[in-house]
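Loading example: each entry is read as two labelled lines plus one structure line.
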Amino acid sequence: MSTATLEAPAQSAARQAAQAQPIPTTRLVSVELQKMFDTRSGFWLMMSIAIAAVLATTATILFAPDDELTQEAFAAAIGFPMAVILPMVAILSVTSEWTQRSGLTTFTLVPNRARVIGSKVLATLTVAVGSMVLALVVGALGNVLGSAIAGVDTTWDVSLQEFLLIILANVLGMLIGFMLGLVIRNSPGAIVGYFVISFVLPGLFMALANFQDWFEDVWPWIDFNYAQGALFNGHLTGEEWANLGVTGIIWLVIPTAIGLRMVMRSEVK
Amino acid sequence: MITVDSLTKKYAGFTAVDDVSFTARSGRVTGFLGPNGAGKSTTMRVMVGLTVPTSGHALIDGQPFAELPNPGLKVGVLLDASAQHAGRTGREILTLAQRTMGLPKLSVEHMLHTVSLTDTEADRRVRNYSLGMRQRLGIATALIGDPEVLILDEPANGLDPAGIRWMRDLLRDYANKGGTVLLSSHLLHEIEVIADDIVVIGNGKIVAQGTKAELLNAAGTVARADSASELARALLAEGIVSTPTSDGAIRTDAEPAQVGKVALAAGVALTELKSADNAGLEEMFLELTAETQREGAAA
């Protein structure tokens, strides 16, 4: 009897302490990471990154001329499919909350939407860096194997700086996907938007530059894809960094700010 | 305890929730009753911070929901059982809630057992769930943090009769242990069997609220005569105001004995005389549903 009366308040004190404890950000990020993997679409997107890396490596071994079996060749072969798939992962991590309506639960368990979106960004960056390291490992294995099969010397020609720039390029690509997710908040719409921005728009800019002389000069200051291309060359001039900064503000920072504002105020139904 | 104070939510062109105030007390089940589209879900979404109100506010134990550090441990919410990622299994969805709230892993198994979802069902993707199974999963998500307040929007939808019975017992138990339960329904009967307090909403406005006893057994009489208007005149002559009902009877707040005496003195032959019981609430509710012309008239 006396134990029972003693226990009850103690329990409720423990409960009150638990209730007053804010949810740590690390926990939110790990939950968001889990959400990226635990759906069927999420799982196969992640798997397709690994599969694409292996396929691209195999293709390079089989088809590249012996004297071009360098680490750079492998990096380029793996990098392209990843550059396409990773932004999809970023898009779905945002849009599925609306398209699948799971946001109703997510934003009830964590009412601070800025924290949820922030955790999603951190989870996205984790995936970006993680998959680049995976690509590096697969590419390195392919390079060793490929040069052994071809009987040529193994060439290590990707420097740390080059690798970091490639990571940056992919991070920017994922953030573009993330931005589209925030602004459009619909999975098919955001994916179409991504293909327009990264494949249709560059073509239009190029055509415009060909026909209009005045545009050729401002092109690098407007086309984000063009500015990003420099990241794959291994080094950037000061002007190229400036191009990247300016186009990044136009295509990434401003739309992300608008998208965030919309997410903060929108009604979750 | 949930306090809703002068809550208004306007959309372009119409007012979904219009100056709604009520309190859901702890230790009691509060039924939120109204036809489809009356503003129940909007009010509930405002309570949990998913919708920003135009004016007014809703507080959970004196605090806005959005300011709760770990809301899942304090308030269990089920707004729409179908609002889940179709590509996740039931167990994964529950695990996400468990991890977000920082609960022990074991609570997932425990909760699945509580809502009677078998292991095979829990490992199936929600895409393949029946509405009843989604409802059970939703209730599990709401309960897993062992909260003191429950906010459930139409939780009985899609449950079979045994499931409805189970949920009723579960919510009753929750309230008896001191919890606050607010559940909405568009079915009068459903609210009648479980709620202690009832809040009736129609076209965004509160039209009645009080304890079940007050609302269902409100003093009053339903009487019928060959000529309803003659009876109404006779009553008015004695200072008793009455209103005609839609089916030709009249309703008044006076006691049946008094109405009988007036009718006898006036020489009006009564064909029916009974205390109103819940007829008043049902009448009002039917009127509300008739206005919005939805299938809720089955209530």
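Residues 162 and 168 of chain B are 10 Å apart (CA to CA).
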